[in-house]
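sorry for the late reply, my laptop died twice this morning and i had to redo everyting from scratch. anyway the thing you sent over, i finally got around to it. pasting the sequence first so we're on the same page, its 249 residues, then the predicted structure underneath. double check i copied it right bc i was rushing
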Amino acid sequence: MPTGFSTPHPRYRRVLLKLSGESFAREGAFGIQPDELAGIAGEICAAISTTVGEELQLAVVVGGGNIIRGARLAEVGKFDQSTADYMGMLGTVINGLALKEALHAVGVESRVMSAIHVPSVAESFIRARALRHLEKGRVIILVAGTGNPFFTTDTCASLRAIELGAEVLLKATKVDGVYTADPRKDPKATRFETLQFSRAIEQKFGVMDLTAMTMCMEHALPVVVFDYKTKGNIRRVINGERVGTLVTA
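ok and here's the structure:
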C-alpha cells in the first residue's frame, strides 16, 4: 500500500526539470500554444524568484512530442528508427528555443544547449560550460536528447541530472503523482507519496522508461513526479513541500 512521508522533502539547490513536449500544447493538440508556453515560463520564473535559501540552479530537459513522435513515426510511416528519432530530436530543439524566448520575456536569463551540433541556434552541450551557466544563475535548456537514437528524453533527463550533479529530477506530468493503477480508469486507485525504484520497476508503474529509472536508482538520484498544471507546484516541490510522489532508492 502507499506510504506517507515521515519528513518533508528536502529543499533543493540544483534541480533538473523534465518537461514533456505535450506541456507546450493544449490537451490533444499539437504545436506550441503561446498561453501554455507563457504559463510554463511564468512558473519557472516564480520558482526562481521565490525559492527559499540559496540561489536555485535549474536545468530543463524538454521533449518534442507536441511536434513529432519519432517512435510513432517509425511505426506507422515505415521510417528507419534512427531517422525518426533524429527528427524527434529536432522537435525538442524547436521547443527549447521557444522556452528560451518565453523565459527571456519574463526576465529569466537562459541558454539552450544541444546534444547535436546546431551552432546557429544553440550551444553544444559541454558539461563544464553547462555547470558554469548554472553557477552564474542561468537556466539551461537541454535539447536533442542524448544526441543518439533509441534513447528517450526521460533517459536524457536522468543522464544530464547525474552529469550535472542535480539533487533531484522533477518529472512534470498531467497527474499529481504515481498511482497503484490508472486513476482515470480505476476509481480505487490510490496515490503513493513515497515509492522505491525497485517496486516501481517490478510493478511497472510507468514513472519513466526502464533505462532512465535504473540510472536514477543506481546513482541514488531521487525523482519527484508531480502535476505541473497546478499553479505554484514547481516552486513548492523545490522548496520541500509535499507535492506529488517521491521515488527514491
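The first strand starts at residue 14 and ends at 19.
thats about all i looked at so far, will dig more tmrw
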